[in-house]
Amino acid sequence: MASNGVQRMYLREILPSTANLNNIFVVAIIIAKQPPRTFPAKDNEGPRCVFNFTVRDSPTHYANVAVWGTETYATIISSKFHIGDVVDLINAKPIFKRANERENLFQPMVTCQFTLSVSERTSDIKLHNTNDCAQFQPLLRLPTQPSSEVTLLQDIHSNNQVLRGKFVNVLVAVHNVYPIRQIKSKDGRDLETREVVVIDESCSKLSVQLWDIDNVYRVENWIPHETVLFIAHLKVDWNVFKATMTGNISSRTVVTENPAIIEAQSLKTFVQKVPRKPRAFIDQLASNCPDLNTITNVMSCKSITDKAAAGGFENMTALIYASLQDFDIDGLSPISVTKCKSCGMQVPEDTFTCKDPECQTTSERKIIPCETVFNLKVSLVDHTGGLRDCRLTSNAAQNLLGCSVIQFASLPEEKKTELKWEFLLTQCKARLLILPASREFARPIISVLSIEKVTDWKELTANLPMF
């Protein structure tokens, strides 16, 4: 219950010397919250429950709050207040803590060295209802950790042995949002969870799982390739089922939507140009690959197949020595497609208009030029097995055939057949980009970045792997 004659204090004014003051209240905006937790009863009392959240009243001052009371009280308070609400914390008692206390490991890292304790019996929480609420809203867009401490998603995947079970800061954009799923916890509770795939400027992706109800429904407002997130203290770990690193929003995590920092605007500009569809995405990855001569790790067909099936990587490159098969350039199968330059998806050749509802050209009614490119699939076979339906990038096809897609279309059929048999069943070396199977595509995607005939048999025998 609130007392009369309370005095407002700012978080910066709460010091050990003022901690024993009575009848104070703090006005701040909620920037993070966790679900209530119940503890067993002591003596003759009923179960105790605590509801934790984090508030901020200035760019430099934010603190954790612990609301103590009965299970009913904590549940009601938790359902009543949400991230973005400006609240009055009346008769909240500052509890100063040591930096190494175990409790700090389960709460967001804050700048204030105290926790505001709110008691059902002596304190109160109310929505702030004066006309100064608007001045708190910009605080929602300020990250709680410096942008200099951001970890790239590519580094999370490449350092998966070191980072398992660790907490990292990431600056990412939403790539995909999946529907809410209902599951049962180990103790029989009904829970709702949601998966979000995020991406950053390293062109790497990470699946992030959200568990608490506020964040699960907060996702409704997140727009793929538009919403940017600064996620402070995201827990990353190895997911055995997916065979890759994934992220989890934990009790320590603070998610800042569309943060007001320069790096966020740069990321947003970048991801708006990133294709949303898997095959268009790998085409962009292939086009952005550095000097292909740096791909020198020789692998066999079997080792590539085994590693792609096992997962544990986001994408990888390989150099393979194999014979070229299934090179159908003179048959009935179309060898070219017309793609939208904005999203990379195939467009009908009769209209040259993108039909993808997620494409900017569709939503904004823009006229974006289309491009016609090679669309060839080949098979590569060595002594250990074969790689079927490998997608030959347009640049690789053009370099192999020695002509553009327009020039190839004008060739007589005899010349096309001649080109086919010049390469079919010959020994080649090919540089590949491989994406393992995932939720977005059931089978691994193998893209041929470059391919050329091997004329030096010494090179072939020296580089042919045993397995």
TrEMBL record:
Q: Which UniProt keywords apply?
A: DNA-binding, Meiosis
**Is the DNA-binding keyword given for this protein?**
yes
List the Gene3D superfamilies.
Nucleic acid-binding proteins
Domain (MEIOB-like N-terminal): residue spans on this chain: 18-144
Coiled coil ranges (UniProt) are none
Q: What InterPro entries would the database entry show?
A: MEIOB (IPR052469), NA-bd_OB-fold (IPR012340), OB_MEIOB_N (IPR056880)
Please give the Gene Ontology molecular function terms for this protein: single-stranded DNA 3'-5' DNA exonuclease activity; single-stranded DNA binding
Set out the biological process GO terms recorded for this chain's protein: resolution of meiotic recombination intermediates
Q: Which family does it belong to?
A: Belongs to the MEIOB family.
Report what the protein is called: MEIOB-like N-terminal domain-containing protein
